[in-house]
Amino acid sequence: xxxxxxxxxLAADLDDPDLKPELAKxxxxxxxxxxxxxxxxxxxxxxxxxxxxxxxxRMNVYVVRQATQGLANWVKTQGGNQTVAISYDSRIKSDxxxxxxxxxxxxxxxxxxxxDALMPVPALSFATRYYNCNAGxxxxxxxxxxxxxxxxxxxxxxxxxxxDAAAIVYAEIQKTDVLTGAxxxxxxxxxxxxxxxxxGDDCKNAFYAAIEERQLCKTAGLKLVYSPLNGSGLxxxxxVLNDIGITDITIVPEQEYPNGYFTTCSYPxxxxxxxxxxxxxxxxxxxxxxxxxxxxxxxxxxxxMKCPDGSYELVSGNEVGVLLLDYIAAGRIEKGTxxxxxxxxxxxxxxxxxDAVAEHYGVELRSVLTGFKWIGDQIAGLExxxxxxxxxxxxxxxxxxxxxPYVRDKDAVIGSMLICEMAAYYRSIGSSIxxxxxxxxxxxxxxxxKVDSFEFPGLSGMDTMAGIMSQLRExxxxxxxxxxxxxxxxxxxxAETGLPSANVLIYGLENGCxxxxxxxxxxxxxxxxxxxxxxxxxxxxxxxxxxxxxxxxLFS
Length: 556
Prior knowledge:
The chain is α/β, with parallel strands linked by helices. It folds into three domains: 38-199, Alpha-D-Glucose-1,6-Bisphosphate, subunit A, domain 3 (Alpha-D-Glucose-1,6-Bisphosphate, Chain A, domain 3); 207-444, Alpha-D-Glucose-1,6-Bisphosphate, subunit A, domain 3 (Alpha-D-Glucose-1,6-Bisphosphate, Chain A, domain 3, 3-Layer(aba) Sandwich); 447-555, Alpha-D-phosphohexomutase, C-terminal domain (TATA-Binding Protein), CATH 3.30.310. Helices cover 40% and strands 20% of the residues. It is built from 19 helices and 21 strands. It has helices at residues 2-11, 19-25, 30-37, 61-75, 94-107, 121-130, 163-174, 187-192, 201-212, 234-243, 273-286, 317-335, 353-361, 372-384, 412-428, 433-444, 461-474, 494-497, 537-551; strands spanning 48-51, 83-88, 111-114, 135-139, 148-154, 196-198, 223-227, 248-251, 290-294, 301-306, 312-315, 343-347, 364-368, 391-396, 400-402, 446-455, 479-480, 483-490, 505-509, 514-519, 525-534. The strands form four sheets. Strands 1-5-4-2-3-6 form a six-stranded mixed β-sheet, with helices on both faces. Strand 14 and strand 15 form a beta hairpin. The longest helix has 19 residues, at 317-335. The two termini are 32 Å apart. The model has no long low-confidence stretch (mean pLDDT 95).
């Protein structure tokens, strides 16, 4: 079957000149053909994500058109404006895929609002809401290596598409022939017919204004080194920082401008040291107070803070989340702008230190499934009740933050603004982010949160992962590293959790530590999240290492 599909693609008159040479090169190589054609990229609530190339199991213009035809079929049943917003980042072919998607929508009689240059995830979410769209499309593979691209689909609320809507779209995709099934119109024709229009300055300025409204105090005197990691963050992040008075910004020159090959860091993920390495070198040279980096689609931001001895220390997503929650809550109480019954939201795999901080400030902290759409869902619920102003902050441990309901996905632009504002404020009172973090640990206890990943590549990877999760459910561990498991929470059991079903297991241990096991929704890996607590960092780290070593055989 897959060989038949390969031959059909090889014989077709393909309009992407990069695909034919690739198909010719793998002729006679069964493993390579099977890898590209044995399965198709699955469309889910996170849309599509895959390696660039030819075939049904690759990201290419035909797979994008097929997905967009499926989306168009769903949009046409939704009434409303019959409009879809589109944005894209700096990845290879992102602009090509965005225009191809626009052409398919236009050919289906659906209006398009597309950005005239690369813009990040939060800008797409904002435009979807601003123009009252039926859906939104963001062409990106987030922080994956350069060989990947992807396609995120959004609902009318600016949140990533719901399970029900994604299932309908996927069913429509499966009815659509990948090479010939999509209706096609050239981008130029769509513009000429008035079906494709660019996002206006009114929308862009409203996006910036909505972010800047969340500023808590005037800022000055911060020396910043910033890297957009060759992605879409450069324009929006520097625009907002300049607007609020952060003007001493040195951009990492090698990572300043869009470059989908990410030649300076093979994995453009602000969670890892290698992605921040050039920025850290520049920060040391410049004597910067803070080093900050956003990922290619600028929905996540990572930082390194300056320590008293002049060195720089990476700050985890959990730590930044807690710092921002603490800063926002204290700042809004001081300014008298804290709403009645304030609400913050975090994912179930994020640090319980946030619960302690929220309780201190009288903030209700809600825990939701992993995936920022669940935080967006909480905002939507508050909005439906006429109480959207109660939402003050949401975060995930994977470096995603949002303050305010103007978008429904994580936003590295407002994250960057609030982090810099927070750093400038602490500097102005003779303190620092580092000092405030140590004060928080002194007050609430030395929490440590770490994530390990186990990769399962290849076509059999997903089956292997499923088998491991089944085994853990059938034979749950009675102890981990000799420490008794006192509670197992299975998030597939909705009656137990009160949340939608999810493939997540959480083990509560006798000593108060927790271990979370969760397959990634976007990559072939199982993640293990550890929360330990000790009298100091060394004790907490030793416990994490002990637990991690004991779990390794389960994933081998």
